[in-house]
Write a structure and sequence with these properties.
Length: about 300
């Protein structure tokens, strides 16, 4: 097969996505079966932007498969500070590793790398554009807990303009029948017009609201909270004005549907109060664990590693 990369969740068909999620579920149930599949393989993590969960999740995934990891955790600790291009960096990394995960503040940078790479490249987040492995994580979490990815009503709350996790999740789940969205954000942080136009073109039901209240949450299967991202704002005043717009707390959860689950790509700032953490509907820390399984399955898929 030709060398394959993952830039967008749409790079995998629905059938391929389901197969990958099936593999991730089997990894969860039988971790020992996969503990040495990647012996001798190396994952390079090229993170030009700070990350905790995504980078460590990739590293944990590769080590759980028996492989090794090398890389850098910020642009400051790479030759980018000397002016080295992404294209040149990936050419070098091809000599050291078998697969690469890249996060970059510039939209499209991982795609540029993939065009020059001799190894599979995974987009670990590019600016406010896409975050496909978080989407796989989200989908595995929803499917594992709710039992399905179709016929769901999903609320997305907070920064829907710059939230790359939101954009990726909408585009991916829009391919499943019976899915609808409630977009909860202030006017300044609405989803980009291209996202709305994409949903209209596919006749995906959605509504846009400003308030997070009992009426908004009624009938939701999933409430996906996001933080207002300081690093995406051009000035401090706009960030300060927006950052506390939505806070999910125990009082709001008391009127939420009993079978609704709460997800968050993390890190949170204060948009989910800590008093929600003990609610059985709060699934954002389970989401982190599912992310390891999803990335293990992705690494195996892109490396074309078969497990008997």
């Amino acid at each position: 097969m030709a060398l394959r990369h993952l830039m967008s969740p749409l790079d995998f068909s629905v059938e391929e996505t389901e197969k990958l999620l099936d593999l991730a579920a089997d990894i969860e149930k039988n971790p020992e079966k996969y503990s040495h599949v990647c012996d001798g393989k190396i994952l390079a993590t090229l993170f030009y932007e700070p990350s905790t969960r995504t980078r460590l999740s990739f590293e944990a995934a590769m080590m759980n498969l028996g492989g090794k990891v090398l890389g850098f955790h910020s642009a400051d600790s790479s030759s980018a500070t000397k002016g080295e291009s992404v294209s040149d960096t990936i050419r070098l990394i091809t000599c050291y590793a078998d697969i690469c995960a890249m996060r970059h503040p510039k939209e499209g940078a991982p795609l540029v790398a993939s065009l020059k790479s001799g190894i599979p490249v995974i987009n670990g987040g590019d600016g406010g554009h896409q975050h496909p492995t978080q989407t796989l994580t989200d989908m595995m979490t929803i499917r594992s807990i709710k039992g399905r990815l179709d016929n769901l009503k999903i609320g997305l709350c907070g920064d829907l303009k710059f939230g790359r996790t939101v954009h990726s999740l909408i585009s991916s789940l829009s391919r499943y029948p019976g899915v609808s969205f409630v977009l909860i954000s202030p006017e300044e942080l609405r989803v980009p017009s291209y996202v709305r136009e994409g949903m209209r073109a596919k006749n995906i039901p959605f509504e846009e609201v400003v308030k997070l209240d009992e009426t908004t949450m009624a009938g939701l299967d999933v409430l996906y909270m996001t933080r207002v991202q300081k690093e995406r704002f051009f000035n401090e005043a706009d960030y300060v004005r927006m950052k506390d717009f939505y806070i999910l707390d125990k009082e709001k959860m008391s009127v939420a549907p009993e079978d609704m689950i709460v997800l968050h790509p993390l890190p949170r700032v204060n948009e989910i109060s800590v008093d929600v953490d003990d609610d059985p509907r709060a699934c954002y820390f389970r989401q982190v664990q599912y992310g390891v399984y999803a990335r293990m399955a992705l690494i195996l898929t892109l490396l074309e590693m078969e497990v008997e």
